[in-house]
Each structure stands twice: as structure tokens, then as C-alpha cells.
Amino acid sequence: MKNNSIPRFSGSFAALGAAAVLTLSACASTPPPPTDALNAAERAVGIAQETGVSDYASPELKSAREKLVQAREAVAREDMAGAAVLAEQARLDAELAAAKTAAAKAKAVNQEIIKSNETLRQELNRNTGGNP
């Protein structure tokens, strides 16, 4: 007579194994698309376009647009990590373009103020006989 004192857990182990496989497969599933990063990049590109970047920082804006397209393509390929990186790079390129544009516009305004000040000095000197 055999001693059958060892309990049989084959059904429990099978269920546990199935649960482990489902848990692992859930962990390996594709992460969600980086929607926030994509939206931020789209907003930054839009803002850059509205500020007239094409006149001052066209290469940076072009790069931002290209990276945004690449980010969307990465989402389509389910490469969410790559999409997030590209979206962040697109946002940064667009912000750089906008900053360069703001700096160029500020420099132009500054030059205009300097020119106006010089004109005023000349007028003042002419009207006062050279004695300010």
C-alpha cells in the first residue's frame, strides 16, 4: 500500500501559473502613448509659428516639426518610449525657435531705440546750437 500523504496541488499550481503568465504579459504590454508630451510639442510648435519664427529661427522650427512627425510615427509603430523622447525634443526645438525669435525681435527693437535716441540727440544739438 502506497502512502498518499502528499497533497495534490496540480490544479492550484496550474491556476497560479496562468495568473503569473497573465501578470507578466500585462507588464510587457505596450505602454500608453505619450499624449501629454505630444500635446505639449504640438502647442509649442503652434506658438512658435504664431510668433513669426519662420523669419528668425526657421531651422529650429523645421526640426521641431520633423521630430513631431517622427514622434507620431513612433506611436503608430507602438514605440512609446521613442515617441516620448521625440515629442520632448520637438517641444524643446520649438521653444528654442520661439526664444531665438523673441531675442531677434528684441534686438531689432533695441536697435530701433538706439537709432531713435541718436536722432533725438542730433535734433537736440541742432536746436540748442550744440550745447545740450
TrEMBL record:
It comes from Stagnimonas aquatica. Pfam families: DUF4398 (PF14346). Residues 1-28 form the signal peptide. Residues 37-111 form the DUF4398 domain. This is DUF4398 domain-containing protein. Keywords: Signal. The keyword Zinc does not apply. InterPro entries: DUF4398.
